[in-house]
Every structure is written in C-alpha cells, then in structure tokens.
Specification:
The structure is a single chain. The chain is α/β, with parallel strands linked by helices. Helices cover 34% and strands 20% of the residues. The chain has helices spanning 29-47, 64-77, 90-95, 133-145, 162-178, 203-209, 238-251, 279-292, 306-314, 326-338, 364-379, 410-424, 476-488, and strands at residues 7-8, 11-15, 53-58, 81-87, 106-110, 119-126, 129-130, 156-159, 192-195, 255-259, 266-269, 275-276, 297-300, 318-321, 345-347, 353-355, 397-405, 431-433, 441-445, 452-456, 464-471, 494-496. Strands 1, 2, 3, 4, 5, 6, 7 and 8 form an 8-stranded mixed beta sheet that branches. The chain has a 6-stranded antiparallel beta sheet with strand order 18-19-20-21-17-22. A 4-stranded mixed beta sheet has the order 9-10-11-12, sandwiched between helices. Helix 5 (162-178) runs parallel beside helix 11 (364-379). The radius of gyration is 23 Å and the shape is globular. The chain starts with 6 loop residues before the first strand and ends with a strand.
Length: 497
C-alpha cells in the first residue's frame, strides 16, 4: 500500500469505486478505517485529549456512506465518541468544533470536492482550522507504521443533524447584518436561484434563503446525487456556470448562487444572468470588506488581473498576490495579521474565500451570506450587488495553456525554465518582470498590440506548468502567446495542451 500517494496537499484523496478505466481503487473501506485509527492517535498526541469527540459528514458521493461507516468504525474502535452529521458541508465540519451546544475535538468531511464520481477523500479539522500538509503526512506515516491500538473502552456514535444548527447560524448572521425593518425576512421580495449541482449545497435554498423570505422557486439540482447527472458542481466549470446563468434569466431572478460539491467554494450570477466569479467575485467581496475595514490587505492567488489590483487600490485597500492554493492564501493572510498587517480577506480565483471574521475558514456558504447582507440592504434602495463593481476594468481576453513536462524529474526541469526565462526576455524592451511576485514568473507585456501580462508557474502537485495570459485589447493574447512560444520552443520537454 502506497500511503503517500493518498496525500493531496492538506487533504487525502483517492479512487473510491471502480468505473473508470485505468483507475484502480486505493481508498478502500479498510484503508479509511486505518486512517481513522491513525487520526485518533495523532489527535491524542497533538491535543492531549484521551477520548476525543469527532464530527463526521459526507457530501453526496455514492461512495460516501460506505467510507463514512468505515471512519466511524475506526473511531469507535479507538475509543472516540462520534457525531454522525449525515450529508453535510466541509465548512460545517469545522464549525462543529466550535459549536456552542456540542463542541467536538475534531471534524472530518468525506469529500473529493468537484472531482469525478469515482473519487473521494477526507478533509480534517480541529479547533485551530484545517490541517496542513505536514499534519496529513504525519497521519499517513502513522497509518503506514501501523502504530495505533484498539481501545479497551470502545467509543460510541450519535446522530446529529448539525446542518440545521449551521444553517441557523447563517440565518441569524444575515438578519443581524442586514438589520432591516422586516428583521426576520430581509430577503422578502427577492427571487434567488440556487444551483447545488446535486452536491451538498441544496440546504442553502430551503434552510437559509426560504427562512429569510426569498422566493427560491427557480432553484435547481438541490437533491444530493453522487452521479452528478446534470453538471459537475463546480463554479469554475463552464457548463455549470452556464446552467445557473440560464436559470436566472429563465426565472427573472435577481440573483443566482452556485456551490461546489462540498460548499467550500461558491460564485454568484447577477440580475442579467451574467456570472460574478473569479476576479469579479474577488472585487465584489473586497468592496464590502474594505468599506468595513479601510486599508485592509486583500490576499489573493497569483493569477488575478491588473484590473482587480486597480479596483482594490481605488477602494482604499492593498492587494497582495501570493501563491495558488487556498491554504497558501489563507496562511499568508494569517501571517500578515500576525505581523500587525491588517488582512480581513484571503481569496482564490477558484472561489475559495476565507474571512477573518469567520475563523479564516474557506466557507462558500458564509461568503454568500456576507454578500446577501449587502444585497438585502441594496435591494431596499432599488440597487443590486453588481452596482458595487461597475468600475472594475475587465480584460478583453484571457487564456490558460497547460504545458505537461515530459520527463521524470519534472520539478527540476520546471525550476530551470523559470530560472532561465528572465534572461531570455531581458532584451525585450516592452516586457517587464513584475515584482514582488511570489510564484513563478509574471511579466507585464506593454506592447501596443499586447496591453496585458502573463504568468508561468509550476503546478502545485502535477508535472504541469500552467501559463495564464490576459490582455486589455482584442488580439492581445495571441500576440503575447506567439512571442512567448518563440522563446519557450527551446524547452523540448514542454508539451502545450
């Protein structure tokens, strides 16, 4: 058993069921039980808690119930008390650790986010937040060694519909934040479409929006279905976004909401059926945060646009581009706050958004709740959320090219490319290296036909170098691409998709 292969950064992911040719199952019930026993040992060593309590939830994947049962079996065998939370969201499993009524030592979510139906995985939380990469490595090392023991006094399991409690937290937050005369129904008169993509996010329509007075009649794909028959639950997926945009138009809604499978990411659609995601979503939540906390630093991933940087500056904030990876962005914001630099928002273009006021938890439902507070206030004035980003300058064109690295030592090859590229472009007068830059190499392309930038970087986990190009003029991306390809042609191990 190759335990290390199960690690995916700060999560565990694997193949849970057969059905895809060439993909062998490696996340079996037996493996998951061992991981549960290893996690309890790790918890005892890290927290000093002899008999931990652990909340367990799962998204709608068809392998979820079996793997959850194996987790619970492993926890009980190790002497832990378990709260079985059924279908849940990833952020809720963290919130269970700070629950006022039944706080837990830890929470685990059985999910593989937006990955195909045959995949599954585990996300781990303690009261300190999500586990880091080193913590997952430690748990896998325990599993590999087999150095864990069954407890003499077995644990127990209770059912706990924590999603009801979690939804009530969101309802109370929106009511208090909006503080409108119709306190209990601040979304009264608003038609809002939710598209859960048959993931775990359907609760938001019935347990949150409906209780706040919204008309949710146009909502779709709310029922959990692990085969995802309508579209992948993923705000970055074109088909998924098109689906919710069409639903907003078809129903004459004022707002559309889309979640990923386990609800740690989200995006919205405006009253015209136009998506507000990626740079636009970052701009929108930044406008709200900076009104509350002027001068705050907004931490984003590395591929955000020039227009977004200008927007944040215009709103009195500081834009701090950092590395891709939601944990990287969150940890950077935590670091800045630790050094006395106020940062209230860490957000990726993928839709992962973590707010200081919410434990720096990347919670797609809380992000939407924050936006709905402002939407409710604007609605009584006859305005919409999209009015907050009317000055955001959007690129005319953008493109991503993924270069596979066709050699065994792909990491070193990628580092060589990035190390040599500055010298190779030094003679290009209208190209300029952007500093500071925390990931890969970012070049500002100032040619008259370019008016844009590109970022070449290493993938976080794969033998891939993604290239992002953006331009403010029509045809600019092609100009930049052709010029850069002429330089990269010398690297024969790079194969463009």
């Amino acid at each position: 058993m190759n335990w290390k292969k199960l690690q995916n950064g700060s999560d565990i992911r694997g193949i849970a069921i057969e059905g895809v040719e060439g993909e062998d199952v490696n996340l079996t019930p037996e493996v998951v039980k061992t991981l549960a026993q290893s996690f309890v040992k790790w918890l005892r060593e890290e927290t000093g808690t002899i008999n931990p309590t652990i909340a367990v939830g799962t998204d709608s994947r068809i392998s979820g119930p079996v793997l959850k049962a194996s987790l619970i079996e492993g926890f009980i065998d190790s002497g832990a008390k378990v709260f079985d939370c059924g279908i849940a969201s990833t952020p809720a499993m963290f919130m269970a650790t700070v629950d006022k009524d039944r706080p837990t030592t830890a929470g685990i979510m059985v999910t593989a986010s937006h990955l195909p139906f045959n995949r599954n995985g585990l996300k781990f939380f303690t009261k300190k937040g999500g586990l880091d990469k080193k913590d997952i490595s430690a748990i896998l090392a325990i599993a590999e060694s087999g150095e864990f023991e069954s407890a003499e006094a077995k644990g127990s399991v209770d059912k706990y519909d924590f999603m009801d409690a979690y939804a009530s937290m969101l309802v109370d937050y929106i009511r208090r934040g909006a503080a409108l005369p119709d306190y209990n129904r601040p979304l009264g008169g608003m038609k809002i479409v939710v598209d859960a993509g048959n993931g775990a996010g359907g609760f938001f329509a019935t347990k949150v929006l409906e209780r706040l007075g919204a008309d949710i009649s146009g909502s779709q794909f709310l029922e959990p279905d692990g085969m995802f028959p309508n579209h992948v639950p993923n705000p970055e997926d074109k088909k998924a976004m098109q689906s919710v945009c069409e639903a907003v138009k078809r129903n004459g809604a004022q707002l559309g909401i889309i979640f990923d499978t386990d609800v740690d990411r989200s995006a919205i659609v405006d009253e015209n059926g136009e998506p507000i995601n990626r740079n636009s979503l970052i701009a929108l939540i930044s406008a709200i945060i900076l009104k509350e906390h002027p001068g705050s630093t907004v931490v984003t991933d590395s591929i955000t646009s020039v227009g977004l940087a200008d927007f944040i500056k215009e709103h009195g904030g500081v834009h701090h581009r950092f590395k891709r990876g939601y944990k990287n962005v969150i940890n950077e914001s935590l670091r800045l706050n630790g050094e006395g630099i106020e940062s209230w928002l860490a957000i990726e273009t993928s839709g992962h958004a973590a707010l200081k006021e919410n434990y720096f938890l990347d919670d797609g439902a809380f992000l939407i709740a924050k936006l709905l507070v402002e939407a409710a206030r604007l609605n009584v004035k006859g305005k919409t959320l999209s009015s907050l980003i009317s000055t955001l300058q959007k690129p005319a064109e953008s493109k991503e090219i993924r270069f596979s690295i066709a050699c065994e030592d792909f990491a070193e090859y990628g580092k060589t490319v990035l190390a040599e590229l500055p010298q190779l472009i030094a003679g290009i007068g209208d190209w300029e290296i952007v500093v500071p830059n925390h990931e890969g190499i970012r070049i500002s392309c100032n040619g008259a036909k370019e008016k844009g930038w590109f970022l070449l970087r290493m993938s976080l986990h794969d033998p891939v170098m993604p290239l992002n190009i953006e331009s403010g003029v029509d045809g600019g991306v092609s100009e930049i691409e052709q010029r850069l390809m002429g330089i990269l042609r010398r690297y024969d191990k790079l194969k463009a998709s």
